[in-house]
């Protein structure tokens, strides 16, 4: 990766993991020293993150990690629900091709749960749903969905951290989704996907 890509992945990964929480102010110098690169690629990375809504830049000062607003939270989950319900129905005829990748991500979630590794748990959760959306076969929608999931992870990361009950419920629901994909009906799977997103909404609104 280029230095700019390295800085981008470093900062974005830390934000998504909750290691850099919302409303944290970052400076180019601080990040450059931390990553071990010059300020120019850090500036380029922050510009990319601003375009994604992750940070707000302040010229010659730094960047503020954007805190999700109640309106953004509602809109993110509304959009996610629409995409996932649509994707669940669209990918049904290709479900056999998606099952191995889904099982792999489910195994990652289970291992992360045992290790109390929230960052890996969230990443595997996200990857699980991306497999479903990608299997629907629309690359434009998949790109939009990935951005939505980034924002959702920022919204709910604080709720998951240290909350074994919620992680347990999330893991159970993912197992049920895979079970329905293998042995259920299309209608049951679509309904379960909808209910799973509704559960995620509950995580957000109780924050």
What does this structure look like?
The chain contains nine helices and three strands. By secondary structure, it is mainly α. The chain folds into two domains: 3-65, Orthogonal Bundle (Arc Repressor Mutant, subunit A), CATH 1.10.10; 70-205, Four Helix Bundle (Hemerythrin (Met), subunit A) (Up-down Bundle). The chain has a three-stranded antiparallel beta sheet. The protein is elongated and about 55 Å long.
Percentage of residues in strands: under 5%
The CATH architecture of the largest domain would be Up-down Bundle
**Major sheet:** 3 strands, antiparallel
CATH class descriptor name of the largest domain:
Mainly Alpha
Give a quick rundown of the structure.
The chain has helices at residues 3-17, 28-35, 39-51, 70-90, 95-114, 118-135, 139-160, 164-183, 186-205; strands at residues 25-26, 55-58, 62-65. It has 207 residues and is mostly helical. The chain has 2 domains: 3-65, Arc Repressor Mutant, subunit A (Orthogonal Bundle); 70-205, GntR ligand-binding domain-like (Four Helix Bundle (Hemerythrin (Met), subunit A)).
Break the fold down into its secondary structure elements and pairings.
Elements: H1 3-17, E1 25-26, H2 28-35, H3 39-51, E2 55-58, E3 62-65, H4 70-90, H5 95-114, H6 118-135, H7 139-160, H8 164-183, H9 186-205
Antiparallel strand pairs: 1-3, 2-3
Main features:
single chain; 207 residues; mainly alpha; Arc Repressor Mutant, subunit A; Four Helix Bundle (Hemerythrin (Met), subunit A); three-stranded antiparallel β-sheet; 9 helices
């Amino acid at each position: 990766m280029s230095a700019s890509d390295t800085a981008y992945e470093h900062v974005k990964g830390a934000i998504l993991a909750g290691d850099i929480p919302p409303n944290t102010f970052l400076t180019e110098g601080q990040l450059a020293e931390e990553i071990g690169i010059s300020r120019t690629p850090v500036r380029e990375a922050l510009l990319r993150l601003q375009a994604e809504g992750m940070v707000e830049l302040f010229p010659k000062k730094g960047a503020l990690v954007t805190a999700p607003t109640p309106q953004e939270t509602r809109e993110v989950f509304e959009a996610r629900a629409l995409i996932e319900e649509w994707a669940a129905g669209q990918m049904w005829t290709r479900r056999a091709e998606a099952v191995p990748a889904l099982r792999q991500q489910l195994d990652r979630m289970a291992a992360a749960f045992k290790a109390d590794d929230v960052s890996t748990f969230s990443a595997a959760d996200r990857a699980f749903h991306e497999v479903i959306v990608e299997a629907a076969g629309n690359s434009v929608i998949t790109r939009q969905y990935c951005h939505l999931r980034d924002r959702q992870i920022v919204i709910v990361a604080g709720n998951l951290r240290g909350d074994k009950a919620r992680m347990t419920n999330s893991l159970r629901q993912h197992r049920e989704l895979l079970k329905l994909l293998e042995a259920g009906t299309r209608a049951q799977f679509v309904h379960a996907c909808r209910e799973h997103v509704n559960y995620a909404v509950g995580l957000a609104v109780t924050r």
